[in-house]
Amino acid sequence: MTDIQHTNAPFTLNEVEHRYGPNVHILSDPVTRTHLARLCSRSTGQPHINGLIRLLYHRLLHEVAASEFPKAPTSVETRMIEVTDRGVWSGDVIDPKTPVVVASMARAGILPGQLCFDALTELLDGNVVRHDYFGVGRVVDQDQKVTGAAVTYSKVGGPFEDAILIIPDPMGATGGSMIETIRTYEKEVPDRPSKTIAMHLIVTPEYVRRMRRELPDLVIYTTRLDRGMSDPDVLATIPGTHPDRESGLNEKHYIVPGAGGLGEIMTNAFV
User: Fold this and answer.
1) What is the pTM of this model?
2) Contact in structure between 227 and 205 (CB atoms under 8 Å)
3) CATH class entry, domain 24-267
């Protein structure tokens, strides 16, 4: 019995309506919003914080894989094959030979990166998934305002060889860390990934604008867009309608309403 007739048919994703273009995907899911609201609450502590991170990234990875990964036809003999020759299911699944590289950015990206790596080795052939690591952080001035980002360490496992690159970073604030990580790949690896996907829990309009300007091919998935520093009339419009008037960053470039410094909160390193 065949359930799905069209290999690589597009997956329909429930998204927030916006004006940022086709490479930006803001999930519209009340269950996900519930988990994220709990994560951001000032009353939530460990171990619930990292448990919620795991829940949210499993959800986000599900959408990314379903929407962005290639499909392949398969046939599986079910247990009913013992009683009937019709006990065979045929349909489209995620192509298990899809090569994927997961890049973890310390420190907020370490837990999401490991989760994505482990989940992908279950979903795909475990031998086609790789995990790279980067030490990357904000560079701030004397007023704690972000002036850039710096990669202080990188461990890259080799060429991409048509792999999809996934970068799970919970907060997309200014975009500096994402840009520096991708630029490091461009310096250290001779080839390019077939597709680069950024996976965030929260992004700002500033982040989205910068990515569209500097990395127009980057595919962005996020569970929420925060633009809490925008004027009320802007907040009443569809995101992206007034891009120059949208803002989700305070004077120190932290996301508002945001979740606080997740890198510190996830590791109990309040420094």
Assistant:
1) 0.91
2) yes
3) alpha beta
